[in-house]
Amino acid sequence: MTEPEEADDSLEKEELYSSYLDGELTEEEAREFEAKLASSPEERANFQAMKKTWEMLDYLPKPDVTMAFTAKTMEKMRALSNPTIAIKEYSYGDRRLLVAAVLLILFVGGFGIGSYSLRKTVSIEEEIIRNFGLYENKKIYEQIENIEFLKKLDAPDLFGQDPSGL
Amino acid sequence: MTAIGQSSAQYALRDPDIRLMLRVRADEPGAFEQLVLLFQQRLVAIMKPMVGSREEAEDLAQEAFLRVYKSRKNYHPKAKFSTWLFTIANNLALNSIRSKKRRPQVSYLTSESGQQQQVGIDQRLPEKQSQPEIHLHNVELADVIAKALDGLNERQRMAVVLNKYEDMNYADIAVVMGLTAKAVKSLLSRARVNLREVLKKYIYMDGAVPEKYES
User: Fold this and answer.
1) ipTM passes above 0.85
2) Do B32 and A74 touch (CB under 8 A)?
3) Which residue among A125, B158, B203, B211 has its CA within the 20 to 30 Å range from the CA of B22?
4) What part of B 124-143 touches A (C-beta under 8 Å)?
């Protein structure tokens, strides 16, 4: 017998063991299988090993579910029905989303404050350039008491041309 | 999903779980909570071997219940209610496993000294011992079995969990997993062979090894 044929035979045999254990064989197939087992100690031992392996899985304890699980599920269900109800406890995935959202808000907020400060600095500089003449003569203007006095100085009869033409 | 005739649908209506789900669909007070209480243990028990951690199993079980609730108005019984619920659970578990695979993680086990060690899948089982008569406490044995299950691929694992712990037949598992019954038979057979390979040194702890057993 060639190797692939042996592998196919073995696979078929294992599937037969498995189907028998799961009660998926017809009555006739099961009878045939039992007869084969009875006549072959080797097959019997292999089948027994598979059966015992399956029985070992009974040692795996089933996880207990707490009342907190039920309460949390019901709370989430109520939040679904009424989105205004806040969910008090967050799952692992929710917590990660929450952290991501907070980071995003901080980033956007930081960017906003930064760009506002930059705009403010630029506008102060623009104002200085626009009123440069005023800033340049600040000391002179400070000596003027009020605007009325400045208007009088500007009157043509005070510093106007001499009428005699000299 | 297998097409189910009218008579099967009528039969399904006699399923008490379906009747409960129909009460959920009608927004009957208390019905959803009753459904959660009825299935939460089974759902977490299915999820736990699939995803490993209890917290994640509970998160996924919760998500499955919420999906049931969200789609309650479109619910039309076509098969057993548990088959529908476990189909949702199977999809959630496989999606979670796939998304973890896209973000590769290294498995860590805590050593006796409390330090974490990076290990491969084949290294996760306890050290090989020369004698087959190893006396393990139930907790340690449960750990060995959990790790043996973890060594199966996710489809084999789901088929094992549904067959072993939910006592589902091949046809029902096929519906849940979107496969043919023949494919389920093959999955379960391969899973058993793999488990036998990994657990062979523990299976005769309680008695003599049969003379002809090929170890």
Assistant:
1) no
2) yes
3) B158
4) 138, 141-142
- Evaluate if pTM is beyond 0.80: no
**Which CATH number does the domain B129-208 belong to among 1.10.8.640, 1.10.8.420, 3.40.50.2000, 1.10.10.10?**
1.10.10.10
CA neighbor of B145 nearest in space, from B44, B45, B50, B49: B49
Q: Do A14 and B41 touch (CB under 8 A)?
A: no
Amino acid at B117: Q
Tell me how close the Cα of A31 comes to any Cα of chain B, in angstroms.
19
Q: Do A59 and B57 touch (CB under 8 A)?
A: no
- Give backbone dihedrals phi and psi of B116, rounded to 5 degrees, phi first: -85, 140
- What is the C-alpha separation between B29 and B24, in angstroms, rounded? 8
For residue B151, the one-letter residue type is G
Which tens digit of pLDDT belongs to each residue from A1-47?
455 566 667 778 899 999 999 999 999 999 999 999 999 999 999 99
Phi, psi (degrees; rounded to nearest 5) at B179? -125, 180
Residues of B with Cβ-Cβ distance to A46 under 8 angstroms: 213-214
